[in-house]
Amino acid sequence: MTTVDMRYTGSALDRVEGLEKVTGRARYAFENFPADLVYAVPVQAAIARGEIRAVDVDAVLEHPGVIAAIWYGNAPRLVPSDNADLAVFQSRRVAYRGQYIAVVVAETYEEAKEAARLLRVEYAAEDHDVRLRADHPNMYRPEKVNPNYPTDTEHGDPDTALTVAPVLVDATYSTPAEHNNPMEPHATVAEWDGDALTLYDSTQGASGVRDTVAPLFGVPPANVRVISPHVGGGFGSKGGPSPYVIIAALAARHVGRPVKLAVTRQQMFAVTGYRTPTIQRVRLGANADGRLTAIVHDAFEQSSTITEFAEQTTTPTRIMYAAPHRRTTHRLVRLDVPTPSWMRAPGECPGMFALESAMDELAIACQIDPVELRIRNEPDADPESGLPFSSRNLVACLREGARRFGWADRDPAPGVRRRDRLLIGTGVAASTYPVYRRPSQATAQAHRDGRFTVRIAAADIGTGARTVLTQIAADTLRTSPDQVLVEIGDSALPAASLAGGSMGTASWGTAVVRACEALVEGLDRRDGDLPAAGMESSADTTEEIGAQRRLSRHAFGAQFAEVGVDTDTGETRVLRLLGVFAAGRIINPKTARSQFIGGMTMGLSMALFEESIMDLEFGDYLNRDLAQYHVAACADVRDIEALWVEEDDPHLNPMGTKGIGEIGIVGTAAAVANAVHHATGVRIRDLPIRLDKLMR
Ligand code: MOS
User: Fold this and answer.
1) Which of 115, 300, 535, 626 supports an S-S bond with 60, CB 3.0-4.6 Å?
2) What residues does CATH 3.30.365.10 cover in the chain?
3) Which atom of ligand 1 approaches the CA of 501 most closely?
4) Residue from 181, 231, 235, 497 to probe ligand 1 pocket by mutation (most atoms less than 8 Å from CB)
């Protein structure tokens, strides 16, 4: 039920920590310097598969400043857990090239770096297998896909329906491996005091890092404190502790001094996860009027040999369009590659590239406008679960987007609009992202001077979380934002879910509202002045969220793109991007717009640039800096706008929000690829849309 009245929620409040950030006073993980600090530089495996025979520790100990070199042979034993990626230095096995296999600790960063380069490692290399293909003999059906969805679904008789369908689209799409490149690379400072560990870490979830790290070192979670007031982006790559966090803690314990470990941008391409590459076959059967009779979406992906990461590529297809006959599947192969991980809208983003490209192909096959085709296939209820949607405004987004973008007079013919050397085209694609919410705790404290402090171990990874929580607290407390201090980014605060799955505001906001409501009630009941310590109330939303009614909850959107393709060079430029979203109530138009256009920019980047290239010979990703791994820069983004249709959905949470961190990237690449087809008549089914593919 929506209970927060809009006064400050809904207003474009500036970021409450904005001044701190632009004046350089906001402190990030790397900028912590405890006394006696030393530096750790990890060493990466130079083979893709095999064993470490020996490491010549003694030789590097003679180098100036070197304090320790740690590897399997001399590392302290960690308590085994089910996350094999975090079992650093616990085995001689090398599972992928670039895996951290040793660490050198020295008085200065430079000394550690030099010694790490000189560390001699003797390997017994074995043949590796790093090539994803759909017909790989070791493809298997994982038991479930992330975070906990059925691997396959089937309704009706899709095979027969495809055979008899008057119109059939059968196409295979592929998306490359992509690497998150937040502005702030991962870093941690680890400091032990007896059996108590403090980590200054760049993370999307302080509570989660604490709960994962503590058991590995055999200490209770209460002994671990994770501090991360400011985080310079994450996009999923800072969702849980990566091996570097464990190495820093292990090294700090080994040398008995605080240790700083900064992951370099080059190292990030092996050790902090990436978006799995996908191969996706989509088959759509339809009547001549464009009404879908069958949807079949099969995805093939990779994971590493040490951890199963099964991305939920085809789950958006389960909810997007009506069709009586349907099937979705996921198959996975475990290769000698780094473990894939979360990257903005994992699953939905690559999955919707395939589905929304296929819908464009169907529109052309049926000679129906692609906006109209989607509207025609709008379902009344969740097409697979049968559950009602809590709210669904895809059609409103498509219509509003079409109006604003100037879609009405679009000539569907491909390859006919010229402007100087450019071929011009427009494309549309739908967007969606699920609405998640996880239990969190919060406290709210009233001070005698009329001010309030709200505490929750939430994370602001650049999204504006601290600001929107301030607005939500102010409205619930019936005060103004300048009277509210929100403390986040510290696991010593009430436990909170992570900044992931676009569920931060929904999860933390619910806990903040409940704590503030309890405080207001307490204050209303009370006569006379507050005691010196003020008054505090707390909330835990576990029961509330557990009792939530079963409904299909998703945000939707429509993405429109205009491109110009240079007929001499094949270079594609995105001239205009418009996204219209229906994502519940928008708490702060300023930070929301920033999330939406940030996601869309990342989607543009996916469409045209981002591609991690597997070196089959050496067995790892060969481009590993921003010179070789291209991300969209300001000059690539010409005209970009995000709008939203206000949605009043009472079935979500007290704020009525749906989450906006990820939906902006979903569908963008398909909109661009569809526009490229409209411009040139060339259908690119394999991202990114490079000029060589267009000139072929
Ligand atoms: Mo996001 S990929 O769920 O951090």
Assistant:
1) 115
2) 18-28+438-546, 32-127+183-233+238-271, 144-178+274-435+551-695
3) 3
4) 235
